[in-house]
Design goal:
- The chain is of the alpha+beta class and 452 residues long.
- The chain has 13 helices and 14 strands.
- The strands form 3 sheets. Strands 1, 2, 3, 4, 5 and 6 form a 6-stranded mixed sheet that branches.
- Strand 9 and strand 10 form a beta hairpin.
- The radius of gyration is 24 Å and the shape is globular.
- The two termini are 22 Å apart.
């Protein structure tokens, strides 16, 4: 078994490198969570149908950022207390020893506890055995607890009123829900990593409303990290119904999913050309690395070979891992690879018909695009088009009103083609190759062709 050498470069992509201690062992403790959620240091990230609430500052040079709200700001949207460990009746606390009620929310929007951004990494986050008094334990924590929620199912007027009454809004900050791909470009690395887990988790909670095993509605457990069938609630009336299969054993649909995707850059044997493809739905002149979902029964390397063949008719070998990137649209893990291919072999896009075009580009051509002021720039209209590939058309008129006016690229000085920005792993793979930053990695692998 070969191992990656310690001297090889390691890279943390945008949206990765989360600064949060997720305190996962405390997600089942509603006493801890109810104490934490009312802490004055707690901050909330709100979404509306997956669109984050963004703070902008008119008349200043300050960049747009995620709107971080206090619990007092969002209380009107959460429903009656307790926020976690809700019983059958509104305002009732459930028993602490019932597994199907661990940090349960059976009313109100789903809420996700994201974790704690510690200011002291010396171990202030105590193990669950030491949280005998939740309030005193929370007082010992140093840092910022983060929660998140999606308000898409709440009354629009109620949401708008709550936002208008936040401390940020009162101080003159403009708060709007913004298309997430456009919004993330203005985030710093740490905030982007928190945004990644927040968006994936609220999307999973928002998207899954019914039990896949029996069709009953579901409710939230474990501070948003588990969904359970309402037929399992202690007070559920299951007269003349068969027991839900989810009540026995482990079920992957009860827990958040992450869908792995291989994304790969094929390099020719000279090391001076790369293969890029253009999806039929991409914005104009946009080319990128090829990518595809992992299928059951295959390794990452298997998927790289299969996807390169299916999309471009190209055989690859010498597959080398570069890095990974969480991609919260809605919950992918992009796994980046380089591979070697024969640039003299014919390219075919007629197998799975995903690509409009695929072609080899030289290092000089890629560097010219990278140096162009618009080479990796995308307008908000472009971001919206990319979002529609994944999510379909946005027919919500309220979200359309919240978007900033699109910034267009001047047609007078356009690059010959465009490639992804380094906020996406595709852009990193391309840029690292073009600028020679991946040289050690590329030289570390075998150059011998694998048997086809």
């Amino acid at each position: 078994m070969t191992h990656r050498s310690d001297h090889l470069p390691r890279f943390t992509n945008f949206l990765a490198g989360s600064p949060l201690n997720r305190l996962s062992w405390l997600r089942t403790s509603h006493s801890f969570l109810n104490a934490l959620v009312v802490s004055p240091t707690t901050r909330w990230i709100l979404f509306n149908g997956g669109q984050p609430l963004i703070a902008s500052h008119p008349g200043t040079t300050q960049k747009r950022s995620l709107a971080l709200l206090t619990t007092e700001d969002v209380k009107p949207l959460l429903g009656a207390e307790p926020f976690f460990g809700q019983g059958e009746q509104e305002g009732e606390h459930c028993a602490s020893d019932v597994s199907v009620l661990e940090a349960a929310r059976v009313r109100g929007p789903s809420v996700v506890f994201l974790g704690l951004r510690e200011t002291d990494t010396s171990g202030s986050a105590l193990p669950s055995s030491e949280f005998k008094d939740p309030h005193s334990a929370v007082a010992k924590l140093t840092g910022t607890p983060y929660f998140s929620a999606d308000v898409a199912d709440l009354d629009e007027n109620k949401v708008n009123e709550a936002i208008e009454n936040t401390e940020l809004a009162k101080d003159g900050t403009m708060l709007t829900f913004v298309e997430p791909r456009a919004a993330m470009s203005s985030l710093d690395a740490y905030t982007a990593a928190i945004f990644a887990v927040a968006r994936s988790m609220v999307d999973w909670n928002q998207r899954n409303k019914f039990c896949p095993a029996c069709g009953s509605p579901v409710y939230s457990l474990w501070a948003g990290w588990k969904l359970s069938c309402t037929s399992l609630l202690p007070w559920a009336d299951n007269t003349d119904r068969k027991p839900c299969p989810s009540g026995r054993g482990l079920h992957n649909f009860a827990h958040p999913r992450t869908d792995p995707v291989v994304i790969m850059l094929a390099i020719d044997e000279s090391g001076e050309k790369v293969l890029l493809g253009r999806n039929k739905k991409f914005p104009g002149k946009f080319y990128s690395a090829l990518a595809g979902f992992i299928e059951p029964g295959e390794s990452f390397e298997d998927a790289v070979k299969r996807e390169m063949w299916e999309e471009a008719g190209v055989r690859v070998w010498n597959i080398r891992y570069h890095s990974g990137q969480p991609w919260p649209y809605p919950a992918n893990l992009m796994v980046g690879y380089y591979a070697t291919a024969d640039s003299s072999a014919p390219i075919r896009t007629d197998l799975d018909n995903e690509l409009e075009d695929a072609r080899w580009y030289t290092r000089e051509e890629i560097l010219a695009v990278l140096r162009h002021s618009s080479g990796t720039h995308f307008s908000r209209r472009d971001h919206k088009k990319l979002a529609e590939i994944q999510d379909g058309p946005d027919n919500n008129p309220t979200s359309a009103k919240s978007q900033d006016q699109p910034v267009e690229i001047s047609n007078g000085d356009e690059p010959p083609f465009r490639i992804p920005a380094p906020t996406a792993i595709a852009g990193v793979l391309i840029q690292h190759w073009a600028e020679g930053k991946a040289k050690i990695l590329l030289e570390s692998g075998s150059t011998a062709k694998a048997s086809m």
